[in-house]
Design brief:
Helix content is 26%, strand content 13%. It has ten helices and twelve strands. The structure holds adenosine-5'-triphosphate (ATP). It comes from Corallococcus terminator.
Length: 444
């Protein structure tokens, strides 16, 4: 109940502990003191997830039965401006208001001072989970996901917000038998909000390295184009089953800055040339060379879809198809704490960042890393990795299997331009809908 102490002597507080004792070493099973507690109008039912910033619970309104998700800030994040971060997340979301954006509708503070936000309860699976299961998606489903994602990002950018962490874990897909599939972009925890000092600003490198734009990696000025680059990484991964750059985290980051990505069509069959070209444009090193906006990219996508004339796909601008006869592999209720591949934090040494030309303010910065292969260890138990404060070799970057190494920019002029940037301080529903369900088998 709100007003009561959150901690019980002798009982570990799962919310405040990032490294809870493993069951085999714990003499007694830990009991989460927040379970059954009333927070505002909601009663906590069960823990459904955990991230670096907070622990997420399913909660219910006792009178009307409405369900919600409540994210409670980890105690250790209080000392690292986490309180401000959680509030910014809620503010960012409410500045946008789009069906493709997770709704945050309330916030509050626990008696011990930890803030919480009350959100729409998401059901479905993350794109990361879907890709883990399927490897890659077919062209039609990829186009649909991109269209939905770009629609949401268009609203994000029009609100003056830059998400800065578009990655497969932050894209939720949901599908029911009797309704059209939906996509939700989540986790605005490191979003850049207008006229606010966002956590991670002032030259700090924030994001998920495998999906980060070159300008984010350099710690330079980041705008909507950075999100578009991340969309390009997701598109590449959906189409080919792998990200364009492989290797250790530092190698991947160097490659994001320096290496030309292979064309998706060199890694998978059946990709239309125009889609190939759009993905490569999204992955341009220079923000100005990417599509002008999410909406502009979406228009290109519509033209691609129209040209594809995918059997069963609706004409562009038509009402979305209701996916009714598609085999559904996903549960309609999110299972409790699924073994999701989670991001984990890496502290990057100053020397590494200086190699990218990043102006270091605080000596070292944090960013998130999505592991290439799904760990089975829950995020809360995963160790914090520390990279050595030495500059790793930027090459070779291991290309995805089967392709020739592409170590550096083929276009010398482009490389020069990229290097000249160094150092740098510091809607609605879609007009496209997949005929193939999210839970259906991807074509080879
Ligand atoms: N609204 C929601 N509905 C259902 N589940 C959710 C919701 N929000 C978060 N989750 C679950 O909780 C997990 C952790 O949430 P989230 O990633 O937002 O936490 P976080 O602490 O902000 O993470 P990080 O800062 O490490 O990205 C998610 O992976 C998801 O499984």
């Amino acid at each position: 109940m709100a007003g009561e102490s959150m901690s019980t002597p002798g009982v570990p507080d799962p919310v405040s502990s990032s490294e809870p004792p493993s069951p085999e070493h714990s003499p007694t099973p830990s009991v989460d003191p927040l379970l059954s507690m009333r927070l505002g109008e909601f009663i906590i039912e069960e823990r459904i997830g955990a991230g670096g910033m907070g622990v997420v619970y399913r909660a219910v309104h006792p009178l009307i039965g409405k369900h919600a998700a409540i994210k409670v800030l980890r105690a250790e994040r209080m000392a690292r401006r986490g309180e401000q971060q959680l509030l910014l997340e809620a503010k960012a979301v409410n500045a946008i208001r789009h069906p493709g954006i997770l709704d945050v509708f309330n916030c509050g503070t626990l008696p011990d001072g930890r803030p919480y936000i009350v959100m729409e309860l998401l059901q479905g699976r993350t794109l990361s989970e879907v890709l883990l299961e399927k490897g890659k998606l077919d062209v039609e489903l990829t186009v649909w996901v991109l269209d939905q994602l770009l629609s949401a990002l268009g609203a994000v950018h029009r609100a003056g917000v830059v998400h800065r962490d578009v990655n497969p874990e932050n894209v939720f897909l949901r599908e029911f038998l009797d309704t059209k599939p939906t996509l939700k972009l989540v986790d605005f925890g490191i979003a850049q909000v207008p006229r606010e000092e966002s956590p991670g600003a002032n030259g700090a490198m924030t994001g998920t390295p495998e999906c980060m734009s070159p300008e984010q990696i350099r710690g330079g000025t980041v705008g909507p184009a950075a999100d578009l680059y991340s969309v390009g990484i997701l598109a590449f991964q959906m189409l080919t089953g792998a990200r364009p750059f492989q290797g250790e985290h530092m190698q991947v980051m160097f490659a994001q800055v320096e290496s030309v990505p292979p064309a998706p069509s060199t890694k998978a069959e059946g990709i239309p040339p125009a889609l190939d070209a759009l993905v490569l444009q999204l992955l341009e090193k220079k923000p100005a060379r990417r599509p002008d906006s999410a909406e502009a990219a979406r228009q290109q996508l519509s033209a691609i879809e129209a040209a594809l004339r995918i059997p069963g796909a609706p004409p562009v601008q038509a009402e979305p198809v209701v996916v009714a006869a598609v085999p559904i592999a996903m549960p309609t209720v999110l299972p409790v704490a699924p073994p999701v591949p989670r991001s984990h934090k890496v502290v990057v040494g100053a020397a590494v960042l200086m190699a990218f030309g990043v102006g270091i303010v605080g000596g070292r910065v944090q960013h998130k890393v999505v592991p290439e292969h799904a760990p089975t260890v829950p995020a809360a138990r995963r160790p914090v990795l520390r990279e050595p404060a030495s500059i790793p070799s930027p090459a070779p970057v291991t290309p995805p299997e089967g392709g020739p190494p592409r170590e550096a920019l083929d276009d010398g002029a482009l490389q020069d331009e990229a290097l000249r940037e160094l150092p740098s301080p510091a809607q609605t529903g879609s007009s496209l809908a997949p005929a193939q369900g999210i839970g259906a088998t991807a074509s080879p």
